[in-house]
Structures are given as structure tokens and as C-alpha cells.
Specification:
With 398 residues, the chain is of the alpha+beta class. The chain has one domain: Cytochrome p450 (Orthogonal Bundle). The chain contains 18 helices and 13 strands. The strands form 4 sheets. It has a 6-stranded mixed beta sheet, sandwiched between helices. Helix 6 runs parallel beside helix 18. The radius of gyration is 21 Å and the shape is globular. The N and C termini lie far apart (56 Å).
């Protein structure tokens, strides 16, 4: 067996979130699998080993992890059994395929225009615009809410519940902060579940053309109690707005700060999707994924992991793995196509990837149509590495 490298690097600290890359490079240099003496878990740092872990749901389970605690044991994102997982995921698969999304493209463009027009006018008038609140946060929330049949007057609550759920990961917090974060998370989960439970009952009584009605009428729903169905609705609503909002914020910061790339994609819109994908690799949103060893011991990169060991896949490090990406710290929108880990891999690959990419393409192109030149107007901070995004982000005309 390979000698076990260990570390005490505090890669999860709030103060490192703005620029985690030096610490992640140092961590990755120690090896693909590193034991963290403080976190008491394994950190997996390279593309190859991360893919090996998240693709092997027999030996690396989500059961008993913080991810399952966030979404619920019966949400399909937490289910390792392929038959159970697919029975739920496939209920909505058609709606999120490229062909299915073409039916709502016009709606997404209309929603985006309703946000972009007033923001662009303020920019042209010389005002700074805080784009996280004006565009990044509401756009994906409005879109997934429209798809699920959630009325617009509920969106402030949906955003608040989602944000409180996102901030409730206790694994790397001090005890008092962890208890407070978990309390907020659980309260938000309960409130969102109550609302979605009522919506599910309403759609059973009066079906509509939305994803809640699709679930209510599905074969999977006939065999499951409402609390399990609600866990899946809650997962869909949360994932459909929280991560995309942070990706959009990364996109606007990146293009605001790199005028050369911004001018290039403004001149050739066919580059937007590749540029957006490169931002996802280079900055990322979901910086970590958690798993637990099941049926161990398990060997990974020559290191033995014991049964029950906690494993954190550091996607942020793996997406800058020099073994997969040449000059990985360089932002390069002309890289040869090479899938990154920003949307996951394997059984739990992001259901909403096509929707997120559609929203990002429309939002970036729409702002460039209205305001071709923009820059960041002031300082901003980042949320922590597990779910990372810039906030708040004020833009002005460049």
C-alpha cells in the first residue's frame, strides 16, 4: 500500500473561499487521496479518482452523508440503488432533455428579458446594478417555478428557503455555528416540504401542465407515500435554482473582469456555450461531493479506506487537475472539448444540466445584446467551497 499523506490545510474556511486555488494546488500535490487530520475524512483531489468514487455507488454510498441529510434519504439524488433512483428520476427526464426544453425556450427568453430590460436601462443610465439580486437569483427560480407550477408570489419564500438549506452544511463548521446552520436548514426544509405537500395535493385534485402534476400522475407516485414524493419535489426546486444562480454570478464576474473574452463572445455568440463551460471548470459551483465507504476496506489510488470512512471529493481541485487539463489554472475558452465535473458524473449526473446551460446562454447573450461592455463596480465575497459563488456583484457600464 502507498504511504498515507495527511494534511491540516483549512480549505473550507470562509476566508479562503475567494482564492482557494493555492491551497488546492498544495493539497493536490500531496496526492490523489489525502487524510485530513482535522476533518477526519479522506479528500480526493484528482479527476480520475473523483470519477472512480462518484461512479461506484456500490462501494461509495450517499447513505449517512451530509448530502442525504440535506435532500432526504428518499430523494433520488440520495438513492444509490439504480432501480429506485431511475424510477423517480425518469419521471422528469423527458422535460429536461434538449427536445423537451425547446418547448419552453421562448418562456425562458421572456423571463430573462423581463429581468434584463430594467437592469440594462439602469446600467445605461449610469447606475450600478447588483446582478445577483436583479438577475442571477431570480432567473433560475422563476424558470423552475414556472415548470413546477409554483406561483410567482411564492418566489421570495422559495429563494429564502433554498438559501437557508444551502447554508446548512455542518461538516466543516465549529460546533455552535454548525448547530445554528442545521437548525436553519431543517426549518427551511420543513417549511418548503409543507408548501410542496399542499401543492402536490392541489395538483392531484386539479392536474395542470407542470412537473408536480407529472409526478402526481406517474407510476412511481402510485407506490410511494407523499413524504417521499415531497422530498423529490423539494430536491428539484432547490437544485433548479440555487446552483444555477451561483454559476450565473461566476459568469458575469468572469466576463466583467476579462474584457478580451467578453468582446470575443460578444462578437461571436457561438462561443458562449464553450466559454460558459470553461467558467464552470475554472471556477465551479459545487466544490465538493461527499460519500461514505460501504463494504470496505476499499483501495483507492493505492490507499486503503476503511468501511464507514467519510470521503470528500474535491471537485474544485479535480477540475484543475493537470493530468486532465493542460495549464489548468489558465482560463481558456478555446480548450479542446473535455468534460469537467461541474455537473457531476455517473448515476447522479445533474438532471438539469441542459436547462442550466440554456438559462446561462440566454442570460449572457441577453446582457451582451443590451450592454456589450460592463465591469465590476466594487468588492464582492464568496460563499464557501462546497457551494461557491460570488456575492454581491455590482456591475457598471465599462
Amino acid at each position: 500500500m502507498t504511504a498515507v499523506p495527511t494534511t491540516r490545510l483549512d480549505i473550507m474556511a470562509a476566508e479562503t473561499a475567494a482564492d482557494p486555488w493555492p491551497l488546492l494546488r498544495e493539497l493536490q500535490a500531496q496526492g490523489p487521496v489525502v487524510w485530513h487530520e482535522v476533518y477526519k475524512r479522506w479528500l480526493v483531489t484528482t479527476d480520475r479518482e473523483v470519477r472512480a468514487v462518484v461512479s461506484d455507488f456500490q462501494r461509495f454510498t450517499l447513505e449517512g452523508t451530509s448530502s442525504a441529510a440535506l435532500f432526504g434519504d428518499d430523494a433520488f439524488i440520495s438513492i444509490d440503488d439504480r432501480k429506485r433512483h431511475d424510477a423517480l428520476r425518469l419521471v422528469w427526464a423527458e422535460a429536461f432533455r434538449l427536445q423537451g426544453l425547446e418547448a419552453i425556450r421562448a418562456d425562458v427568453e421572456t423571463i430573462a428579458a423581463g429581468l434584463l430590460d430594467p437592469a440594462a436601462q439602469r446600467l445605461r443610465d449610469g447606475e450600478p446594478v447588483e446582478v445577483v439580486g436583479a438577475l442571477c437569483r431570480p432567473l433560475p427560480t422563476l424558470v423552475i417555478a414556472r415548470m413546477m407550477g409554483v406561483p410567482q408570489d411564492m418566489l421570495p419564500d422559495v429563494i429564502r428557503w433554498s438559501d437557508e438549506m444551502a447554508g446548512g452544511g455542518p461538516a466543516y463548521l465549529a460546533d455552535a455555528a454548525a448547530r445554528a446552520a442545521v437548525a436553519r436548514r431543517e426549518a427551511a426544509k420543513a417549511d418548503l416540504a409543507t408548501y410542496l405537500g399542499e401543492l402536490l395535493k392541489a395538483r392531484r385534485a386539479a392536474p395542470a401542465d407542470d412537473l408536480v402534476s407529472t409526478l402526481a400522475a406517474s407510476e412511481a407516485a402510485s407506490d410511494l407515500p407523499d413524504d417521499q414524493l415531497v422530498q423529490n419535489l423539494r430536491q428539484l426546486l432547490f437544485a433548479g435554482n440555487e446552483t444555477t444562480a451561483k454559476w450565473l454570478a461566476h459568469l458575469f464576474v468572469t466576463y466583467a473582469e476579462d474584457g478580451g473574452v467578453r468582446r470575443e463572445i460578444a462578437a461571436d455568440r457561438s462561443l458562449i456555450r464553450a466559454a460558459n463551460d470553461e467558467v464552470m471548470r475554472w471556477q465551479g459551483v459545487v466544490g465538493t461531493l461527499v460519500r461514505r465507504v460501504r463494504g470496505g476496506p476499499v483501495e483507492l489510488a493505492g490507499i486503503e479506506l476503511a468501511d464507514g470512512d467519510e470521503v470528500t471529493c474535491v471537485l474544485a481541485a479535480a477540475n484543475r487537475d493537470p493530468q486532465r487539463f493542460a495549464d489548468p489554472d489558465r482560463f481558456d475558452i478555446h480548450r479542446p472539448p473535455q468534460p469537467n465535473l461541474g455537473f457531476g458524473v455517473g448515476l447522479h449526473f445533474c438532471l438539469g444540466i441542459n436547462l442550466a446551460k440554456l438559462e446561462a446562454e440566454i442570460a449572457v447573450g441577453g446582457l451582451l445584446d443590451r450592454v456589450p461592455g460592463f465591469r465590476v463596480a466594487g468588492p464582492y465575497t464568496y460563499s464557501s467551497l462546497p457551494l461557491r459563488g460570488p456575492q454581491p456583484v455590482s456591475l457598471v457600464v465599462a
